[in-house]
Write a structure and sequence with these properties.
CATH superfamily of chain B: HUPs
Helix content of chain A: 25-40%
Number of strands of chain A: 20
Order of helices and strands of chain B: EEEEEHEHEHEHEEEEHEHHEEH
Radius of gyration of chain A: 25 Å
Radius of gyration of chain B: 24 Å
Shape of chain A: globular
Oligomer: heterodimer
CATH topology of chain B: Rossmann fold
Low-confidence stretches of chain A: 398-404
Mean pLDDT of chain A: 90
CATH superfamily of the largest domain in chain A: HUPs
CATH architecture of the largest domain in chain A: 3-Layer(aba) Sandwich
Structural class of chain A: alpha/beta
Strand content of chain B: 25-35%
Strand order of the largest sheet of chain A: 9-13-8-5-6-7-14
Largest sheet of chain A: 7 strands, parallel
Helix content of chain B: 25-40%
Distance between the termini of chain A: 77 Å
Number of helices of chain B: 8
Low-confidence stretches of chain B: 268-272
Chain lengths: ~400, ~270
């Protein structure tokens, strides 16, 4: 229940204006809540006189038996850990400095996966638990949920972190529901609060607001994080840790779905969500032939090419390169938007990039609202000029005093 | 065959803005729409109905405040047969888990004999993509998330699904829950006849009492996560706008910028 302290409320309308659900109106100078309220708590934060509170019954639960930070090691098609696993290990390591928790890696995979143990220790794990089974070679929800629920029940970690990859977003909610615990998606920040709880911060409403979330009553505290949100620290070869092998009772009959075919996307050497530099193209590139020039630019900058939805729908770019709401979420070191207007459906997928450079003919294009540098100009003219200059500089190595 | 399509009403995120000085959300004039991914799910159900020989019944289900009724009306106008709205003050404050539990309980207790559950991959207001898989787990049925095309093959379903490495085909026994991640951007306009027909269709409101769940499992109390603070995102410094009508000048600006940000070191120009 939302409670308004009628003695404190000044009728200032801060809550009325700020409520995204039109659930508050000021009646006779007092904030009045209607049935549209979903108890999101935004007004509690907004009220300048702290007149609004949410009443809840506190249930005491014993959470003391849950210790350690567990990271799921997702493997790519080559049976190597995905980059996001290393990024999560770096974050787990820094959280463990606050809590003194052990960092545990759960590593389900096919036979022979033990070989990855030492590398994961160098990246920050104290203990790597290998769960080997031939049914864990490719991803299925049932197989991975079964083995991970078993290992979480055995180890009782306080925190479980998973990459918000396609399969991470499939698996994490399945696990959370089976464990009956809370899960926060796509966190952009994770810290430990004064009560040693995991404070999970994530964007909502298309990135227009940020929310900090806790999992107060249940364990483990589960969170997913998009690739490249955290940076992976360099490996420390001297780090010590333990690699354990654990048996699993997984049976074929427990796995209900089957991947019957995979059509690999060969066109893409580097996945856009893992790229450090992205050159991203939209309708403003004007001609399909211009994509060759864009690719040349990308090569000179050691960048990967991504795209807006429209170019994918026109069949100019492979769908695996699409950035935005119905495509990929990326956060490269720099995002170079060429001829992309920047509708919110696109910007939700790239606004967390470190640096954004946009070139667009339309000075009113919304992409300029999220960019750091905006060039109002024609991509078809500027890109060839940029390529010429980069080549000229590339042909002539930077001169030193002695060579002059 | 019976298909349930689970939908959500969302504010059009395009229009949601935060007032920079106060950190408040500006909601004036923000329209509510049927979440686009949910509409893709409904489109897929309608496509299946068109493609199958047997009769296909499509039931649209939503949970939300009373005005979410309009999202269900849109489903009925587009071709769903019946609608149910879970709406009750008791559901307020539900996180993903509490939402999945309420919807899952409704489906189990009140919608027996479903073959397929279709949902959107995620809702554009929260973007969590968690409710579908949590509900599949609560119902104990298999899931395929981020599906694109769904084809029924006897008592199985075949789903194409985009993954990092390409596109995979997943076969699952029915009943199953499939969340849909892609669809047509073109929004359809129902005809006058569709609008009239929709008004004759059944749209029932379900309350918390109807689900016979403990109050401790509902809404805020039943939620496993708790929002303790909301705030505006860290503001970017603001965009430096440069005129690019002269390409060479624009290139200078770009190279300066890349150097300033440490992306690349610039080769020194040849002294003339």
């Amino acid at each position: 229940m939302l409670i308004v302290d009628e003695d404190e409320c000044t009728g200032c309308r801060a809550c009325e204006r700020g409520c995204p659900f039109e659930a508050i109106t000021i009646v006779d100078g007092i904030a009045t809540i209607n049935e549209r309220c979903i108890l999101c708590g935004i007004c509690v934060n907004l009220c300048p006189v702290h007149a609004i509170s949410i009443e809840r019954e506190e249930v005491e639960t014993d959470l003391s038996g849950w210790k350690g930070i567990m990271v799921w090691c997702e493997l790519d098609a080559d049976m190597e850990p995905r980059e996001v696993v290393l990024e999560l290990l770096g974050k787990a390591r820094s959280l463990s400095h606050t809590t003194g928790d052990e960092v545990i890696v759960a590593l389900p995979g096919p036979r022979g996966i033990e070989r990855l143990g030492e590398g994961l220790i160098a990246q920050g794990a104290d203990r790597v638990i290998c769960l080997e089974h031939d049914l864990l070679k490719g991803y299925t929800t049932d197989a991975f949920a079964n083995v991970l629920v078993a290992i979480i029940a055995e180890e009782r970690p306080s925190v479980v972190l998973m990459g918000a990859t396609i399969n991470g977003r499939d698996l994490a909610p399945r696990l959370a529901a089976r464990l009956g615990t809370g899960l926060t998606a796509d966190c952009t920040d994770l810290t430990i609060d004064d009560e040693e709880r995991l404070l999970q911060t994530r964007p909502a409403f298309g990135g227009n607001i940020m929310a900090s979330i806790i999992t107060p009553r249940t364990r483990p505290q589960m969170a997913t994080v998009r690739p490249r949100v955290f940076r992976s620290p360099p490996p420390e070869e001297s780090r010590e840790g333990v690699v354990e092998k654990r048996g699993t009772t997984l049976r074929r009959s427990q796995v209900r779905t089957r991947v019957v075919d995979l059509i690999p996307d060969d066109q893409q050497e580097m996945r856009v969500e893992e790229a450090r530099i992205l050159v991203s193209v939209g309708r403003g590139v004007a001609k399909r032939d211009n994509l060759e020039i864009i690719k040349e630019l990308a090569e000179l900058l050691d960048a990967t090419v991504s795209s807006s939805r429209s170019l994918v729908e026109m069949g100019w770019m492979p769908r695996s390169t699409q950035v935005g709401q119905s495509g990929k979420t990326v956060s490269p070191r720099i995002y170079i938007a060429l001829g992309i207007s920047g509708a919110v459906q696109h910007t939700v997928g790239m606004s967390s990039s470190d640096i954004i450079l946009a070139i667009n003919r339309d000075p009113e294009a919304p992409i300029f609202k999220v960019a750091d540098l905006g060039i109002v100009g024609d991509v078809e003219e500027i890109v060839p000029a940029l390529i010429r200059r980069l080549k000229m500089e590339g042909d002539q190595p930077p001169m030193t005093e002695s060579s002059m | 065959m019976r298909i349930a399509v689970l939908v959500k009403q969302v504010p059009e995120t395009d229009s949601v803005r935060v007032e920079v000085e106060t950190g408040t959300i500006i909601r004036e004039g923000v329209p509510s729409i049927l979440n686009p991914f949910c509409e893709y799910a409904l489109d897929e159900a309608l496509r299946l109905r068109g493609a199958m020989k047997e009769k296909v019944e499509i039931v649209a289900v939503s949970m939300g405040p009373p005005q979410a009724r309009s999202a269900l009306m849109r489903c009925l106008e587009l071709g769903a047969d019946r609608g149910f709205l879970l709406s009750d003050r008791g559901f307020a404050g539900s996180d993903c888990w509490a939402t999945a539990l309420a919807l899952g309980t409704f489906i189990r207790k009140r919608l027996g004999g479903l073959d397929l559950i279709l949902t959107g991959k995620q809702a554009i207001d929260g973007d969590t993509a968690q409710v579908p898989a949590e509900m599949a787990e609560i119902l104990g049925i298999p899931q395929v998330t981020g599906g694109e095309r769904v084809d029924v093959d006897g008592d199985h379903v075949m789903v194409t699904r985009e993954i990092e490495e390409g596109v995979e085909m997943v076969r699952s026994p029915l009943p199953a829950l499939i969340s849909i991640g892609r669809g047509s951007n073109i929004r359809r306009f129902p005809s006058m006849k569709d609008l009239m027909d929709a008004r004759e269709k059944s749209l029932r409101v379900i309350t918390a009492d109807d689900l016979e769940l403990d109050t401790g499992d509902l809404g805020l109390m039943g939620s496993r996560t708790r929002v303790i603070r909301v705030f505006p995102p860290p503001a970017r410094e603001g965009c430096r706008i440069e005129d690019g009508s002269d390409p060479e000048v624009a290139v200078d600006r770009i190279l300066d910028f890349l150097e300033e940000k440490g992306i690349r070191t610039r080769g020194r120009e040849r002294p003339c």
